[in-house]
Design goal:
With about 210 residues, the chain is an alpha/beta fold. It has 2 domains: about 10-80, Winged helix-like DNA-binding domain superfamily/Winged helix DNA-binding domain (Arc Repressor Mutant, subunit A, Orthogonal Bundle), CATH 1.10.10; about 85-195, 3-Layer(aba) Sandwich (Rossmann fold). It has 8 helices and 9 strands.
Amino acid sequence: MQDRKVPESTIKRLPVYLRTLDNLIRKDVDLVNSDILSEETAFTAELIRKDFSFFGAFGIRGRGYYTENLRQNILKVTGLDKPTIVIVVGAGYLGIALARFNITKNPYTKIVSVFDINPAIIGNKIIDVEIMHVSKMAEIVRKYTVDVAILAVPLEQAQVASNNIVQSGVKVIFNFVPVTLDVPDGIHVHNIDLSVELQTLKYYTFKIRAGSTF
């Protein structure tokens, strides 16, 4: 990788490129160019070329990119050449849905366990992943060297659950609870507030109904 800092916006687009390449490979497309990728992703061809330039020369001048080679390069750049080891904390409707999706639809993520405190569901399985009591979290984190914890508990349990995650040794929390977590330095929290996202969409529905353009 080159020394210049890669923008966060570029990093966020890399998984989109990866998903697009997966689809093209399934269609037996061996060679693509930035124009084809632009049609598939809705990003401009210029932006795509600029994104790739941060990581060196992926393509062949005048021809484009070999899809499998480009995919492998993006996997290495993102660290997805090895699966992201994940636990889910909270086995309510959202936690189960997130676990089920990643188990069945996300080849780059490996869910190794789901945790909860409800004795009525401990021992149940989501596909082939067991729901365990939170008291076993540190053991599982050590055993599998867990990368990320998905937090999907009720609001009032969020900080305690976050403390358990941090104490277990996980450094990255994907937080689906609409609350600001108090975590030590060195812990990265990525917040997804579904209620805010839905409220934001209300603006666009209002503009559309008013006949406005964007």
